[in-house]
Amino acid sequence: MRIGQLAERTSTSRRLLRYYEEQQLIVSTRAANGYREYDERLADRVLQIRGLLDAGLPTRIIKQILPCLDKPRAIHFPDATPEMLATLVQERDRMTERINCLVRNRDAMDEYLAVVSAGEAGAGTGAGAGSGTDTGTGTG
Q1: What superkingdom heads the lineage (predicted)?
Q2: What whole-number distance in Å separates Cα of residue 45 and Cα of residue 12?
Q3: pLDDT in tens, 54-93
Q4: 60 φ, ψ to 5°?
């Protein structure tokens, strides 16, 4: 597929896709006319990259862990330093905290929606009928 198709499929700008390629996060081939050609499987890869970037990982770390995202998994890091491993542990822990926060927020929204939905259902059956109506107090 061409860059425009990949951009559309992943909701990622062409400029950002070229940047990912420059950072060696994705690879393209060149067609005879010079246009970039991308493998269909790169759509998932781009979405993974975007998710990792959104989680706060820098591209240099993403480049290192991309092989872990492939199936079958091929994990081999000849240049893994103690600093890099410490960074990954720190980032993983930060992601876990963020996930926990998102789960708490989602659960709170679910509770709110359940209460509001129950209230609307009750209002439709007459339980809330008459609220907000003029009670004849001489205001109008």
Answers
A1: Bacteria
A2: 12
A3: 888 888 888 888 877 776 555 556 677 788 788 888 888 9
A4: -65, -35
